[in-house]
TrEMBL record:
Keywords: Cytoplasmic vesicle, Lipid-binding, Membrane, Protein transport, Transport
GO biological process: protein transport
One function term, GO molecular function aspect: phosphatidylinositol phosphate binding
The UniProt record lists the keyword Protein transport: yes
Similarity remark: Belongs to the sorting nexin family.
Annotated PX domain residues: 6-124
Primary localization: membrane
Name recorded for this polypeptide: PX domain-containing protein
Pfam families hit by this protein: PX
Membrane topology term: Peripheral membrane protein
Length: 167
């Protein structure tokens, strides 16, 4: 999927059993190819499951691999590896790449902002007052001298604009 000038390709070449404090689980090595760079992130089934919960709210997803009873069976794990790879690549091939997927892949970018930043450089300043009050609505200071307080008048004009600015 192209994002601006970036291509993102995901491969899951391997998995391995990981033991931590008497708990064993499978870790899938996810290779992320983007902008001629490659990095690997290790993800568990629960990480994929959490991603699926987030992604399915914003985009149509490919079928998600279900948990099985024979979780240490090599054929089951190989099938899951292939299906996870298809799942991730299927989302990347869609019309919109969710930010949660970019975070999951540990990519420090936001796909929507990359496309919109190019468009912003052509747009000029478009600020204009959205709200104005008539002169009677201002909280005007008491005049002590013959000269008006230009500082207060300038601040009030800057904050509130005037009715003439909206025409």
């Amino acid at each position: 999927m192209e994002i601006g000038e970036m291509n993102i390709i995901v491969k899951i070449p391997s998995f391995r059993k990981y033991t931590d404090n008497e708990k064993s689980f499978t870790v899938f090595s996810v290779e992320v190819h983007h902008n001629n760079n490659v990095h690997t992130v290790d993800k568990r089934y629960t990480d994929f499951e959490e991603l699926h919960k987030q992604v399915k709210q914003s985009v149509n997803t490919p079928p998600f691999p279900h948990k099985t009873v024979l979780k240490w069976n090599q054929k089951v794990l190989e099938s899951r590896r292939v299906r996870f790879e298809q799942y991730l690549q299927g989302i990347l091939n869609g019309p919109k790449i969710p930010r949660s997927l970019l975070k999951f892949l540990e990519l420090n970018m936001q796909c929507e902002s990359l496309e919109s930043l190019d468009k912003l450089s052509d747009v000029g300043v478009t600020h204009q007052p959205m709200l104005a009050f008539s002169e009677n609505s201002y909280v005007t200071p008491q005049q002590k001298g013959s000269l008006p307080d230009i500082l207060v008048a300038g601040v009030l004009q800057g904050l509130y604009g005037s009715v003439d600015d909206l025409r």
